[in-house]
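Appendix B. Worked example

We walk through a single record from start to finish. Start with the input: the chain for ATP-binding cassette domain-containing protein, Paenibacillus sacheonensis, length 237.
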Amino acid sequence: MDMEASGNIVELSGIHKRYILKHALTGIDLEIKKGRIVGLLGPNGSGKSTLLKILAGLIHPTSGTVRIDGRAPDANRKKQIAYLPEIDHLYGWMTVDETLRFIAGFYDDWQADKADELLATMNLDGRQKVRNLSKGLRARLKLIVALSRSVPLVLLDEPFSGIDPSSRAKIIRSIVSEFRTGEQTIILSTHSVSESEPMFDDVMFLQQGSVRLFDSADNLRSDYGCSLENIWEKVYA
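Next comes the structure step. The output line below is what the pipeline stores for this chain.
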């Protein structure tokens, strides 16, 4: 089936990823529809970051096929994906404003007006040096970088790490308000399940490199009769 016609932004078939001492992914078969916010959940070592890197085209699976919007990943497809890694990739000697201008120069799809709005929403001072920002403020800046691009697929790996709970709730509301249903898909890996739960359309639970559960958030809550956070506890007890 033509994936573009089927409405899938992502299709994975038989994805394995082996490292020398570890089998990170053990046969992922997966379809993700366009225009959804997908929660990628699982304990450390379950394969979340590896899966996101494969989708971003940063690493290749040992076996299996990857299709993004109907095509195999290539240089052009990478340009249509915004990826926020868990590691800090910002230059400390730049100011916040300089960082955003620097990154804007790499992408034709950069939305300066959206970056300015997010800068205000996340209470960041554009004149501050990145090296002087707290871990939480640097996490906010990384989110601005990812969310300011007009691309079909946004991949966020632990974007709320270091951000306090009250600020997380505000940022999540901002992401949801900016999200344009039907035009963009967001796949978000997080341990902050309780705060993030309201934003998820679909949820995937990974365990030891394979998909343990994948369904709409509403169906999972209905089937288990509890919140996603409580489902987490049941799955990984």
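Two observations about the output. The CA atoms of residues 204 and 214 lie 4 Å apart. The longest strand covers residues 8-18.
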